[in-house]
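Practice set, problem 2.
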Amino acid sequence: MVECLWRILGTSILLTSEDHQHKFGLPAPLDALARASELLVHDTVTDFALRDDSLDLLFTFSRGHRLEILPTSAGHEAWQIVSPQRQHFIAVGGGRLNTHSDET
C-alpha cells in the first residue's frame, strides 16, 4: 500500500501518482492505477533498493521500467509492505521504519 508520491520511469518519467485524473489533452482523465498496471503487468522485479535515510523504494523490472516510491512527509506514513509470512514493514514519518508481525 502506497500513500505517497510514486513514479514509473523508462528512459523518462512515464507516469506518476500525481497524474491521476488529469486530462493532459486526452479524451478522458488519466487513470494512473490502470496505466501503471498496463506498464508493469508482465514484468518481474529484478532488483530492489531501500534508501536508509528517507525510506525511498526503488524496484527495477525485467523490461527496464523502474518504480520509485518517494515518501514526502515528515509526519505521515508513506508506505506499507506485508510479506507472505505476515511481517509488516511500515515507513512512518521522517524516514523511520517500523516492523511487526501478525500474531496467530
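Problem 2, part (b): a different protein.
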Amino acid sequence: MSVVLAFVALGEAAAAKTNNLWSTINICDTHKHPNKLGVRGRMPNDGHKSHTLWMKFIAQYKNTNTHKWQKVTSTKFEKLGDGSTSWRSSGKTFTITFAKSAPKGTHFTFRGLVKYQWRNGSTVVQSASRTTTGGHPAMDSDPPGYSAATCVITK
C-alpha cells in the first residue's frame, strides 16, 4: 500500500511541474497593439534553489507552401532568476512587419516557441521547449485573459 502511495505522490509532483511548463500567445494584433505578437512562458523550478531559470522566445510563421513552421525572429536566453520560487514567467512582444510589396489583405499565421533552461552556474542541467497553446493564465494580455495557440496578423 505504501509503495502505491509513493508512486501516486511522484505522479502528482510530475503533473504539477508539467502544468507550470507552458507557453502561450497573450497579444495578437489588437487595436492597442497593432501588428504585435506577444509570447509568454512559464516554467517551474527544478527543486534546486541555487539553479537559475532561463527562457528564449521565438516567433514562427506557417509557410503556406511547405506547411512548415519557420522562424521569424527570436530573443537571446533571458535569466529569470533562481529556483527560490515555485515557478517563473516572462514574455516578449514581437513587432510583425510586412514587406512593402505585400498587397493589403496579406495574412500570416504565427505561433510562439519558448525554450527553457535550468542552469547550475553556466552549465545547463535540464532543457525543454514548448510551442504555444491556449487556456493559460497569461499576464499582461490584450485583451485581458487572452491566451491562444496561434495568431493571424493581416496587413
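Answer key, part (b): The longest strand covers residues 107-120. Residues 38 and 93 are 4 Å apart (CA to CA).
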